[in-house]
Amino acid sequence: MRYDIPYAAPGQVIGLLGGSFDPAHEGHAHITREALKRFGLDAVWWLVSPGNPLKTRGPAPMAARIEQAQAVINHPQVTVTGIEERLGTRYTAQTIAALQALYPRARFVWLMGADNLAQFHMWQDWKRIAETVPMGILARPGQRISARMSRAATLYAPYRILGRNSQLLAQAHAPAWCFVNVPMKDVSSSAIRASGAWSA
Ligand SMILES: Nc1ncnc2c1ncn2[C@@H]1O[C@H](COP(=O)(O)OP(=O)(O)OP(=O)(O)O)[C@@H](O)[C@H]1O
Ligand SMILES: O=C(O)c1ccc[n+]([C@@H]2O[C@H](COP(=O)([O-])O)[C@@H](O)[C@H]2O)c1
What we know:
There is one protein chain. By secondary structure, the chain is an alpha/beta fold. It has a single domain, classed as Rossmann fold, CATH 3.40.50.620. The protein contains nine helices and seven strands, in the order βαβαβααβααβααββα. It has helices spanning about 25-40, 60-70, 85, 90-100, 115-120, 125-130, 145-150, 150-155, 190-195, and strands spanning about 15-20, 45-50, 80, 105-115, 135-140, 160, 175-180. The chain has a seven-stranded parallel β-sheet, sandwiched between helices. It is globular, with a radius of gyration of 16 Å. The chain binds adenosine-5'-triphosphate and nicotinate mononucleotide. Pathway: Cofactor biosynthesis; NAD(+) biosynthesis; deamido-NAD(+) from nicotinate D-ribonucleotide: step 1/1. GO terms for molecular function: ATP binding; nicotinate-nucleotide adenylyltransferase activity. It catalyses: nicotinate beta-D-ribonucleotide + ATP + H(+) = deamido-NAD(+) + diphosphate.
């Protein structure tokens, strides 16, 4: 199951939400439902990461995270996948290149919370990512200002699509990004781990 290759119909627009999902929570589910609506996506794939390259702490085992994530998001348009492990990619730029080769007729949109936009310039080949796929950014408590002031937001300011035009993002040519001010949920995996409620 965890090595399944998700199906994508030709021309489908697929949002990719990469994450450690250690564990998945209502914040992930909420931004996914908002992204489907606000960006007019056909589907969202949760890419359960073998391990965030910027995090020193290794996550819980992949199979446990996938199983828990599937229980959290029970939505007909959402697929939880461990495809990065199968592709052997850990860095997002590599994952996107591999997915585009595997699904040449699909259209991908990279999704992330505002905290990740704030750090985006530390990712490997971040400019290549921004110039390859449109990016949908979802508000996160305490992160809206740091995201808007970030290096990536500044560099790509001319390519920003305003939130009220979010439906244009998926068909836009990269670089293109859109920050949507969705209602926010103050939930995080680290808080859940700290509470002791997740031990895989
Ligand atoms: N409550 C939230 N609001 C908005 N975006 C979120 C929220 N929780 C997670 N995200 C986004 O979902 C993606 C995956 O997040 P991740 O799996 O790292 O969860 P997390 O709660 O941020 O974990 P941790 O607390 O361990 O850093 C990231 O792009 C992150 O910004
Ligand atoms: O490619 C990179 O350099 C890179 C650096 C940090 C994070 N990422 C990706 O960002 C996504 C969110 O990671 P995380 O751990 O914050 O859930 C996940 O798909 C990671 O693989 C990617």
